[in-house]
Design goal:
The complex is a heterodimer of chains A (268) and B (352). Chain A is an all-alpha fold. Chain A is built from twelve helices and no strands. The mean pLDDT of chain A is 90. The model of chain B has no long low-confidence stretch (mean pLDDT 89). The chains are: A mainly alpha (268), B alpha+beta (352).
């Protein structure tokens, strides 16, 4: 066992401070919320509906955008094309935008005058103040997490495995579904969970696109601004508990997939 | 028959240049070259993993230059085997049959048959993470052979295998070749070429330097590079001169070698195999050949016995069988005589 030098102690102390910084506010919130208040909130139909809305809309946004994001991630990992760096920059753009600005951008896109809004209107759908609009706002700010994680996963699959599959008579599609996707699965699932979690916790972009129906972060803000900290706290605690439970469940599903050892091209 | 016609391919700073070769059906062709010489790139062009910039590839009189990789029916075993880690051994071997949507019963029978042939039946239900190099090699081979390829390409197939398993794998390759399978095997190890090849090509910097039967390539290397590959360590830059009916080669004014009859240019390189030189404690009087007195400078173990470095005007590497070495009781600084026939001097006219 290595000796605990002063250097190790300093590292431990600094690390503990950071962890405490994350845990202390959460612990304080939980400790300040009584069981009866929490029970009352669980029975509050409005809170339950907003949490449920948050979860399913975030999941639907992640699921539907994954259909396009995963092929894009594969292209970024495998293909060389002009202006690839610019494409990569565009994908990362939502991460650096202020979320309210992202909300304004999405609102412009889905309002009646916007490109997507006009198309939706033509089939009788209004995206503003609609779960579909909320999903778009959530996806806008969270999709880089899925694309980047999936891209790293595909990049870690040795190309020679794909070449071997081709030489054995597999079509490109078959190689994608039998070799590339299964081997990149872990990273894709991690990206999926991260995108879902990020979408679920989004406030800034969503509040601009849809104040109603209220997702949980908007409801918490509304309770805080209308009734104060005491009333916002139980809803926050409940949302955190549910979000954590869903997050852990999805992580477990992702981890359950059998771990495979991949030898990268460089080692081969 | 596989035929390459003026194949060129640029890959970054490296390029394969105007490669032409013919490999007849049933041959065991070994392509010998250092890492980075272009041998793997050439295999990938034949397999269809990359397209050449120019030139044509023919297989059994069919132009396959632009044919889809899936339709070439050429088996390729990768250097690191490229076994799919997400599939079991069975799944790996059955992969190509599943691509063709073959009936499950047929797949089972075929996989069982080929696994039995390659002694890997006991591994079929295992995942591949913990298999040894030899086992992975057999799985990769089974996975390729189940496609009944017209041509089998092996990329450094023995490079990652324990020495103890190499003989088994070599025997398997030889048996496959005896059954009629045409094999192209690329390697950097000339001993593999000596043991397995019916024909050899030596590739360097993207060019084929020499092709032919193993005896021709190793016995008459066309240049210094090929000679080095053939394990030759005695190289002498010489000036050739004609004295009456006999030819001599003068090396830096230190040494004059008797050469066999033939035609020689003014200058060139002489190579002498270290196992073609005999060693004596006294003057063996080899007047027709070459005989020089020298001093042993170094002793080191070799495959046959002991390799001596003898200073006799020039430095000569001499391979001595262990029995002879013990009989002669040679030590460092021993005075010795080295002798070799004129025919042991092989002239490389261009100098390599």
């Amino acid at each position: 066992m290595s000796r605990n030098t002063p250097f190790t102690w300093i590292l431990l102390m600094l690390s503990s401070l950071v962890l405490l910084f994350i845990l202390a506010p959460l612990a304080g919130m939980f400790l300040h919320t009584g069981g009866s208040e929490l029970l009352e909130t669980v029975n509050d139909q409005e809170v339950r509906a907003s949490i449920w809305l948050t979860i399913w809309v975030a999941f639907a946004a992640t699921f539907f955008f994954a259909i396009g994001a995963i092929p894009l991630a594969w292209l970024l990992a495998r293909k060389k094309f002009p202006m690839k760096n610019i494409v990569q920059g565009i994908i990362d753009l939502p991460v650096v935008l202020p979320h309210t600005a992202a909300g304004i951008a999405v609102l412009g896109f889905i309002s009646r005058d916007g490109l997507l809004g006009k198309v939706a209107n033509s089939v009788g759908l209004t995206l503003i103040n609609n779960p579909a609009g909320i999903a778009l706002a959530m996806a806008f700010v969270s999709i880089p997490f899925l694309i980047n994680s999936a891209r790293d996963g595909f990049a870690a699959v040795p190309e020679r495995l794909e070449k071997a599959a081709l030489s054995l008579g597999a079509s490109r599609t078959r190689v994608l579904f039998t070799i590339s996707l299964p081997l990149a699965w872990r990273s894709i699932m991690t990206g999926f969970v991260m995108m879902f979690a990020r979408g679920m916790s989004e406030f800034g972009a969503v509040v601009i696109v849809a104040y109603h129906p209220m997702i949980a972060p908007v409801l918490i803000y509304e309770r805080f601004s209308s009734f104060g900290l005491k009333y916002a706290r139980p809803a926050s605690v409940l949302f955190i508990i549910v979000a954590l439970a869903v997050f852990i469940l999805l992580r477990l599903i992702a981890i359950r997939k059998k771990e495979t050892h991949i030898v990268p091209d460089a080692e081969a | 028959m596989l035929k390459l016609e003026n194949i060129s391919k640029k890959l970054g700073n490296f390029s394969l240049a105007e490669i032409s070769m013919e490999i007849r059906n049933g041959e065991y062709y070994v392509l010998l070259g250092r890492s980075g010489s272009g041998k793997t790139q050439l295999l990938e062009l034949i397999a269809g993993l990359n397209d050449p910039d120019s030139g044509k590839i023919w297989l059994d009189n069919e132009d396959i230059t632009t044919k889809k990789i899936q339709e070439r029916n050429i088996g390729l075993v990768f250097q690191d085997y490229a076994i799919f880690p997400n599939l079991t051994v069975f799944g790996n071997i059955a992969y190509s049959l599943r691509c063709k949507k073959t009936d499950k019963k047929v797949i089972n029978n075929e996989v069982t048959r080929i696994a039995k042939e390659l002694n890997i039946s006991h591994l079929l239900n295992r995942f591949t993470n913990n298999l040894s190099g030899g086992e992975l090699q057999r799985v990769a081979l089974a996975r390729t052979l189940i496609t009944s390829p017209r041509l089998l390409l092996l990329d450094e197939p023995l490079a990652s295998i324990d020495a103890s398993l190499k003989d088994d794998i070599k025997r398997t390759f030889r048996q496959l070749n005896r059954k009629g399978l045409t094999i192209v095997h690329v390697t950097h190890d000339y001993s593999e070429a000596v043991i397995l090849a019916t024909r050899i090509g030596v590739i360097h910097n993207g060019r084929i330097l020499q092709e032919g039967l193993p005896d021709d390539v190793f016995g008459k290397p066309v240049n210094r590079f090929v000679a080095r590959y053939a394990g030759i360590r005695n190289f002498f830059r010489v000036k050739f001169r004609n004295e009456g009916r006999s030819w001599k080669a003068e090396c830096n004014g230190n040494l004059v070698l008797n050469l066999p009859e033939g035609k020689y240019p003014e200058e060139g390189l002489i190579i002498i195999r270290s196992n073609a030189i005999s060693i004596f404690k006294a003057d063996p009087s080899n007047e027709a050949g070459n005989c020089f007195r020298g001093v042993v400078k170094e002793l080191s173990p070799s495959e046959q016995g002991i390799e001596l470095l003898v200073e006799a005007g020039e430095m000569f590497y001499v391979d001595v069988p262990m029995n002879d070495f013990k009989k002669l009781q040679i030590t460092e600084a021993s005075d010795v005589w080295i002798s070799f026939p004129a025919e042991a001097c092989i002239a490389l006219p261009g100098g390599g």
